[in-house]
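**Paired protein data**
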Amino acid sequence: MDAKLPEAHLAKELGLSRTPVRHALNRLEAEGFVVYELRRGHRLRSFTARDAEEIYGVRALVESEAVRLAALRGPDPKTEADLADLIGRMATVLNNPDGLEPDEVRARFLRLNHRFHAVLYGACGNQYLLRIVRQITELPLVLRHYFNFSDEQLHASHRDHQSIFRALRARESDRAAALVREHILAARDRMLVTDQATADREGRAVEEVESWDVILEVDRR
Protein backbone atom coordinates (compact mmCIF):
# COMPACT_ATOMS: atom_id res chain seq x y z
CA MET A 1 0.00 0.00 0.00
CA ASP A 2 1.36 3.44 -0.97
CA ALA A 3 1.73 5.56 2.16
CA LYS A 4 2.45 8.83 0.33
CA LEU A 5 0.14 11.80 0.86
CA PRO A 6 0.52 14.04 -2.20
CA GLU A 7 -0.93 17.49 -1.64
CA ALA A 8 -2.32 17.85 -5.15
CA HIS A 9 -4.14 14.52 -5.03
CA LEU A 10 -5.60 15.20 -1.57
CA ALA A 11 -6.72 18.69 -2.60
CA LYS A 12 -8.51 17.26 -5.63
CA GLU A 13 -10.12 14.50 -3.58
CA LEU A 14 -11.38 16.98 -0.97
CA GLY A 15 -12.30 19.72 -3.43
CA LEU A 16 -9.95 22.21 -1.80
CA SER A 17 -6.96 24.31 -2.65
CA ARG A 18 -3.55 23.00 -1.65
CA THR A 19 -3.08 25.57 1.13
CA PRO A 20 -5.53 24.15 3.71
CA VAL A 21 -4.36 20.63 2.84
CA ARG A 22 -0.76 21.65 3.43
CA HIS A 23 -1.72 23.19 6.79
CA ALA A 24 -3.52 20.00 7.79
CA LEU A 25 -0.55 17.84 6.82
CA ASN A 26 1.81 20.07 8.77
CA ARG A 27 -0.39 19.76 11.82
CA LEU A 28 -0.57 15.98 11.47
CA GLU A 29 3.21 15.96 11.21
CA ALA A 30 3.49 17.95 14.45
CA GLU A 31 1.11 15.49 16.14
CA GLY A 32 3.13 12.47 15.02
CA PHE A 33 0.81 10.95 12.41
CA VAL A 34 2.68 12.08 9.31
CA VAL A 35 6.35 12.27 8.29
CA TYR A 36 7.77 14.84 5.88
CA GLU A 37 10.78 14.00 3.71
CA LEU A 38 12.62 16.57 1.61
CA ARG A 39 11.80 16.24 -2.11
CA ARG A 40 9.48 13.31 -1.33
CA GLY A 41 6.71 15.10 0.51
CA HIS A 42 4.46 13.78 3.24
CA ARG A 43 3.74 10.14 4.02
CA LEU A 44 1.89 8.32 6.75
CA ARG A 45 4.05 7.40 9.69
CA SER A 46 4.64 3.71 10.40
CA PHE A 47 4.37 2.48 13.97
CA THR A 48 6.32 -0.41 15.46
CA ALA A 49 5.71 -2.54 18.54
CA ARG A 50 8.43 -0.46 20.24
CA ASP A 51 6.50 2.72 19.42
CA ALA A 52 3.38 1.23 20.99
CA GLU A 53 5.29 0.29 24.13
CA GLU A 54 6.74 3.79 24.52
CA ILE A 55 3.45 5.56 23.76
CA TYR A 56 1.57 3.54 26.34
CA GLY A 57 4.31 4.17 28.89
CA VAL A 58 3.80 7.91 28.49
CA ARG A 59 0.03 7.45 28.61
CA ALA A 60 0.31 5.67 31.94
CA LEU A 61 2.13 8.68 33.39
CA VAL A 62 -0.02 11.53 32.11
CA GLU A 63 -3.42 9.84 32.29
CA SER A 64 -2.94 8.62 35.85
CA GLU A 65 -2.06 12.18 36.87
CA ALA A 66 -5.17 13.53 35.14
CA VAL A 67 -7.36 11.07 37.03
CA ARG A 68 -5.59 11.80 40.32
CA LEU A 69 -6.48 15.47 39.91
CA ALA A 70 -10.04 14.62 38.86
CA ALA A 71 -10.50 12.47 41.96
CA LEU A 72 -9.09 15.20 44.22
CA ARG A 73 -11.67 17.61 42.79
CA GLY A 74 -14.44 15.06 42.79
CA PRO A 75 -16.70 14.62 39.76
CA ASP A 76 -19.48 17.13 39.20
CA PRO A 77 -23.00 15.70 38.74
CA LYS A 78 -22.87 15.81 34.95
CA THR A 79 -19.49 14.09 34.74
CA GLU A 80 -20.64 11.40 37.17
CA ALA A 81 -23.85 10.85 35.21
CA ASP A 82 -22.01 10.72 31.88
CA LEU A 83 -19.49 8.17 33.16
CA ALA A 84 -22.23 6.01 34.68
CA ASP A 85 -24.14 6.13 31.40
CA LEU A 86 -21.07 5.13 29.39
CA ILE A 87 -20.35 2.22 31.73
CA GLY A 88 -23.93 1.05 31.31
CA ARG A 89 -23.73 1.32 27.53
CA MET A 90 -20.47 -0.62 27.45
CA ALA A 91 -22.05 -3.35 29.56
CA THR A 92 -24.93 -3.57 27.08
CA VAL A 93 -22.52 -3.85 24.15
CA LEU A 94 -20.61 -6.64 25.87
CA ASN A 95 -23.82 -8.51 26.70
CA ASN A 96 -24.62 -8.22 22.98
CA PRO A 97 -28.44 -8.58 23.11
CA ASP A 98 -28.66 -7.87 19.36
CA GLY A 99 -26.33 -10.70 18.38
CA LEU A 100 -23.75 -8.48 16.72
CA GLU A 101 -20.66 -9.90 15.06
CA PRO A 102 -17.53 -9.87 17.28
CA ASP A 103 -15.86 -7.17 15.18
CA GLU A 104 -18.84 -4.86 15.60
CA VAL A 105 -18.99 -5.50 19.35
CA ARG A 106 -15.31 -4.62 19.57
CA ALA A 107 -15.70 -1.48 17.45
CA ARG A 108 -18.65 -0.21 19.50
CA PHE A 109 -16.92 -0.97 22.78
CA LEU A 110 -13.76 0.86 21.73
CA ARG A 111 -15.74 3.95 20.69
CA LEU A 112 -17.45 4.03 24.09
CA ASN A 113 -14.14 3.32 25.79
CA HIS A 114 -12.57 6.33 24.09
CA ARG A 115 -15.48 8.51 25.17
CA PHE A 116 -15.25 7.22 28.76
CA HIS A 117 -11.59 8.16 28.99
CA ALA A 118 -12.21 11.56 27.40
CA VAL A 119 -14.91 12.42 29.96
CA LEU A 120 -12.78 11.06 32.79
CA TYR A 121 -9.73 13.13 31.91
CA GLY A 122 -11.84 16.18 31.09
CA ALA A 123 -12.62 16.44 34.81
CA CYS A 124 -8.97 17.02 35.79
CA GLY A 125 -9.26 20.82 35.78
CA ASN A 126 -5.82 21.37 34.23
CA GLN A 127 -6.13 22.54 30.63
CA TYR A 128 -2.42 22.12 29.87
CA LEU A 129 -2.30 18.56 31.14
CA LEU A 130 -5.52 17.82 29.27
CA ARG A 131 -3.96 19.09 26.04
CA ILE A 132 -1.06 16.65 26.47
CA VAL A 133 -3.44 13.81 27.31
CA ARG A 134 -5.50 14.44 24.20
CA GLN A 135 -2.44 14.47 21.99
CA ILE A 136 -0.90 11.28 23.36
CA THR A 137 -4.18 9.34 23.36
CA GLU A 138 -4.83 9.96 19.66
CA LEU A 139 -1.84 7.84 18.57
CA PRO A 140 -3.10 4.61 20.17
CA LEU A 141 -6.37 5.07 18.27
CA VAL A 142 -4.34 4.53 15.11
CA LEU A 143 -2.62 1.46 16.53
CA ARG A 144 -5.77 -0.20 17.85
CA HIS A 145 -7.01 -1.04 14.37
CA TYR A 146 -4.26 -3.63 14.09
CA PHE A 147 -4.98 -5.63 17.23
CA ASN A 148 -7.92 -7.95 17.95
CA PHE A 149 -8.84 -7.93 21.63
CA SER A 150 -10.60 -11.05 22.82
CA ASP A 151 -14.01 -11.07 24.49
CA GLU A 152 -12.32 -11.86 27.81
CA GLN A 153 -9.97 -8.89 27.43
CA LEU A 154 -12.84 -6.51 26.68
CA HIS A 155 -14.65 -7.68 29.82
CA ALA A 156 -11.45 -7.18 31.85
CA SER A 157 -11.16 -3.65 30.50
CA HIS A 158 -14.76 -2.96 31.45
CA ARG A 159 -14.18 -4.18 35.02
CA ASP A 160 -11.27 -1.74 35.20
CA HIS A 161 -13.59 1.10 34.18
CA GLN A 162 -15.99 0.22 36.98
CA SER A 163 -13.18 0.19 39.56
CA ILE A 164 -11.81 3.51 38.33
CA PHE A 165 -15.27 5.07 38.49
CA ARG A 166 -15.80 3.89 42.07
CA ALA A 167 -12.43 5.34 43.14
CA LEU A 168 -13.25 8.63 41.41
CA ARG A 169 -16.61 8.93 43.12
CA ALA A 170 -15.02 8.14 46.49
CA ARG A 171 -12.34 10.79 45.79
CA GLU A 172 -9.61 8.22 46.40
CA SER A 173 -7.08 10.05 44.29
CA ASP A 174 -4.04 7.81 44.72
CA ARG A 175 -6.08 4.66 44.20
CA ALA A 176 -7.78 6.09 41.10
CA ALA A 177 -4.38 7.05 39.66
CA ALA A 178 -2.94 3.59 40.38
CA LEU A 179 -5.94 1.88 38.77
CA VAL A 180 -5.62 3.97 35.61
CA ARG A 181 -1.88 3.37 35.42
CA GLU A 182 -2.40 -0.39 35.64
CA HIS A 183 -5.32 -0.19 33.18
CA ILE A 184 -3.16 1.52 30.56
CA LEU A 185 -0.17 -0.78 31.05
CA ALA A 186 -2.39 -3.86 30.93
CA ALA A 187 -3.84 -2.63 27.62
CA ARG A 188 -0.30 -2.18 26.33
CA ASP A 189 0.68 -5.68 27.35
CA ARG A 190 -2.43 -7.21 25.79
CA MET A 191 -1.78 -5.33 22.59
CA LEU A 192 1.84 -6.42 22.29
CA VAL A 193 1.14 -10.05 23.22
CA THR A 194 -1.76 -10.22 20.77
CA ASP A 195 0.34 -8.80 17.95
CA GLN A 196 3.20 -11.20 18.64
CA ALA A 197 0.81 -14.18 18.76
CA THR A 198 -0.73 -13.13 15.45
CA ALA A 199 2.72 -12.75 13.93
CA ASP A 200 3.72 -16.21 15.16
CA ARG A 201 0.62 -17.78 13.63
CA GLU A 202 1.30 -16.07 10.33
CA GLY A 203 5.00 -16.91 10.39
CA ARG A 204 6.17 -13.31 10.19
CA ALA A 205 8.05 -10.83 12.31
CA VAL A 206 6.29 -8.05 14.16
CA GLU A 207 6.64 -5.33 11.57
CA GLU A 208 5.68 -1.72 11.19
CA VAL A 209 2.03 -0.92 10.62
CA GLU A 210 0.66 2.01 8.67
CA SER A 211 -2.64 3.68 9.34
CA TRP A 212 -4.98 5.11 6.73
CA ASP A 213 -7.47 6.10 9.43
CA VAL A 214 -6.15 9.66 9.59
CA ILE A 215 -8.76 12.37 9.19
CA LEU A 216 -7.65 15.64 7.61
CA GLU A 217 -9.51 18.35 9.49
CA VAL A 218 -9.10 21.31 7.14
CA ASP A 219 -10.54 24.79 6.91
CA ARG A 220 -13.07 24.68 4.10
CA ARG A 221 -13.75 28.40 4.12
Summary: The chain has two domains: 1-48+207-221, 49-202. Residues 173-202 form the longest helix (30 residues). The longest strand covers residues 34-37. The two ends are 32 Å apart (CA to CA).
